[in-house]
Design goal:
The structure holds 2 protein chains of 2 kinds. Chain A is an alpha+beta fold. Chain A is built from 4 helices and 13 strands. Chain A starts with a helix and ends in a 20-residue tail after the last strand. The chains are: A alpha+beta, B alpha+beta.
């Protein structure tokens, strides 16, 4: 019964959106708990498989147009394990990052032992921070606070599950058919917009799922700067849990 | 509310226009580059470095007088240092090898000096992800402290003024067993090591002719890194350690280290240069935090209690003795006191931090004024007991990929007969250019 009411409400709000009546901030604030959560899980599944390997190019673009590029090999397993290895440039080669849930470490070959890092720091400079580079699935870190259906997309308003998450609030524009997000805004607890992510260049990877291969980001805190993340060779791969340990941070290259 | 809606709508309308001005990426080119790197089983790279340094020498300090009593150095000394660091690795199936060498050429007060060291050279066998066997020369990297690691029983001590620099490893054989779990204990790693000490192998690591044993048990439990370590054998007295590290918030990390060295022998000199040696259990510990502010300033603060260090009175006695010996040499030509003082400086008195209580503070600002890759920093190491310190302003900048520039000016502050007040230099101005390469 409650599901039926929710669906009716969903249809009504969708209709209002289609008529252009539902202005973003004046739309009725209705929560569609389970449906919205399922939509968020579908977004996660589209953005990246649950366990996979990939190569990523990170590009920091300065206002002058100058670029700084980084190439990373990344392995993710389940909902909370990510390990990344810097392959280039030469000054960063061998650096590796590990994330286990809320715990993050950085391994710098010269320094030796892995040091704990925090989600708001950035190991590469630029607009992407550690939480962006080692992002967990959104549904792991966020609850859907409200969902606003529009004609062709959903707007999801997410709230961090706890204070250890990098962004307190996230607003996500999701295509209704493909569940591919087009834009995500990340906010601090104060309501300050920290950055906006733009998802582009959808293409099929090894399992034929259409995924965004390019993520661009800019930030009012870094006016004129832009960072771009390009995904390549995304394919499902399940490795043992032992790979996601501090001992392995200096040895990621051996399993690439 | 209506105003907000209009503003938001304007932003939405403007977004596509802004996006058009954004940088474009050549996806095909990126795919090609990734394909080339992904298939490569080997790596050769490293860096070239050029570092001119201006030393402001305190000719009246104990260090300068003891080291250069025959030929007093100038007030200012300019040094030019070149360094080549080479790294290589190769992997095939479960086997891999790794090499790191360091060659440095620089002019020192007595003349030019060239030094080549093999920092690391080891082979690794990884039959599966739970077992790793390695043998050769490598750095073990134990401990959680940033500036000091009292529980790093195998590695050479770090330079706390520059703790991120690579170290020369020790020759050993290790076996790692790694397990992961679901639940509050997520990871367990047991590392065991055999550390031989012979004439040409780890010769400075204690009594020759023995193979020593070391082990470390690591747990990631309740989101906290915890290590227990032990080193035992006939080359050195047995030592035990413990460390931890935990993120208390997204921007705050806390860590600590604790170490006990059984029957640690410390040789000291009194005011008249008479030596005495005492054995006791040395207890060292370190507590530290790393904090990232909203303005993206990273603060590192560590307190270090050095159980192997010298008391304030022991250091003052040594400085008095060395200075008296210098005066005696000037008056009579008798250098025996200074020769003895030199030997002491080669031991416990000449360590970078010979005292017992130190405080480390570092503040670094990421990319101020929106200038990417620029990091100004200020570091201070304070001898808590005598109030002397080294203060290190620093500016790091990377103007282009693989090129790093660093300007530092360590300044030593302290009265006579204090730790930093008696160091050889009043200040140094260092400019380092480092260019990384990959073949």
């Amino acid at each position: 019964m409650s599901d039926a009411i929710a669906r009716m409400g969903l249809a009504l709000v969708g209709l209002l959106g289609a008529l252009g009546v539902g202005a973003v901030f004046s739309a009725p604030r209705i929560t569609y708990g389970q449906d919205a959560d399922q939509i968020l899980r579908k977004v996660d599944a589209v953005l990246q498989p649950e366990s996979f390997e990939s190569y990523r190019k990170l590009i920091n673009v300065e206002p002058s147009g100058a670029k700084r590029e980084f190439l990373l090999f990344t392995l993710k397993k389940g909902h909370d394990k990510i390990i990344s290895l810097f392959m280039s440039p030469a000054s960063e080669k061998g650096r590796a990052t590990l994330r286990l849930g809320d715990n993050m470490w950085l391994y710098i070959p010269n320094v030796g032992k892995p040091v704990r890092i925090t989600s708001l720091q950035s190991v590469i400079g630029g607009v992407f921070n550690n939480a962006d580079i080692m992002r967990l699935d959104y549904h792991v870190e966020y609850d859907v606070r409200k969902m606003e259906p529009k004609l062709k997309e959903y707007i999801l308003d997410l709230k961090a599950k706890n204070a250890t998450v990098a962004y307190d609030q996230v607003k996500m524009w999701v295509d209704k058919k493909s569940f591919v997000p087009s834009k995500i805004e990340c906010y601090a607890a104060t309501g300050l917009l920290i950055k906006t992510l733009y998802f582009k260049e959808n293409k099929p990877f090894d399992d034929a799922t259409l995924r965004p291969s390019v993520i661009e980001t800019d930030s009012p805190l870094y006016k004129g700067y832009q960072s771009i993340m390009v995904y390549s060779r995304v394919k499902k791969r399940v490795v043992p849990d032992e790979v996601f340990t501090l001992e392995f941070l200096g040895k990621v290259e051996t399993i690439r | 509310m209506v105003g907000q809606a209009i503003l938001f709508a304007l932003i939405l309308l403007a977004a596509p226009l802004a996006a058009q001005e954004k940088a474009q990426v050549d996806l095909a080119e990126i795919e090609k580059e990734i394909a080339a790197l992904a298939e490569k089983p080997y790596h050769v790279g490293g860096f070239f470095e050029f570092q001119p340094t201006l030393f402001g020498i305190d000719r009246d300090s104990t260090f300068a007088r003891v080291r250069f009593y025959r030929d007093p150095p100038p007030h200012l000394f300019d040094q030019y240092a070149l360094r080549l660091r080479l790294e290589g690795s190769y992997k095939k199936d479960i086997f891999s090898v790794f090499l790191k060498s360091d060659t440095a050429v620089r002019n020192e007060l007595p003349g030019w000096k060239e030094e080549t060291k093999l920092f690391e050279a080891y082979a690794s066998v990884k039959p599966n992800t739970s077992w790793i066997f390695e043998a050769g020369k490598k750095v073990m990297k134990w401990g959680k402290g940033y500036a000091w690691n009292p529980a790093a029983f195998i590695d050479r001590p770090k330079n706390p003024e520059d703790p991120e620099e690579a170290l020369e490893g020790a020759t050993l054989a290790t076996a790692d067993y790694i397990r992961s779990f679901a639940g509050p204990v997520k990871t367990l790693t047991l590392t065991t090591a055999l550390v031989p000490v012979y004439e040409h192998v780890n010769a400075k690591s204690g009594e020759l002719g023995h193979v020593n044993f070391a082990a470390k048990l690591y747990l990631l439990a309740y989101d906290t890194d915890i290590d227990w370590m032990i080193f035992t054998g006939s080359s050195r007295t047995t030592r035990y350690g413990f460390d931890f590290s935990r993120n208390l918030a997204t921007n705050l990390e806390a860590h600590g280290e604790f170490a006990v060295i059984n029957n640690f022998a410390l040789t000291t000199a009194n005011e008249r240069g008479q030596l005495s040696s005492r054995q006791s259990d040395a207890v060292s510990y370190l507590l530290g935090v790393r904090y990232l502010s909203e303005q993206e300033t990273t603060y590192i603060v560590e307190y270090y209690r050095n159980g192997t260090g010298l008391s304030r009175a022991q250091m003052t006695d040594f400085f008095s003795y060395a200075q008296r010996s210098y005066r005696l040499f000037q008056e009579t030509g008798d250098e025996s006191g200074l020769v003895r003082a030199q030997r002491l400086l080669d031991g416990a008195y000449g360590r970078p931090n010979p005292g017992r209580h130190y405080l480390y503070f570092r503040a670094s600002q990421k990319e101020p004024f929106d200038i990417l890759y620029l990091t100004p920093a200020l570091t201070t190491i304070l001898n808590v007991r005598d109030g002397s310190a080294v203060v290190i302003p620093e500016l790091s900048y990377s103007p282009m990929t693989n090129l790093e520039l660093r300007l530092r000016a360590p300044t030593f502050v302290g009265k006579q007969r204090t730790d930093y007040g008696e160091k050889q230099n009043d200040f140094r101005i260092e400019f380092r250019i480092r260019f990384h390469f990959s073949l």
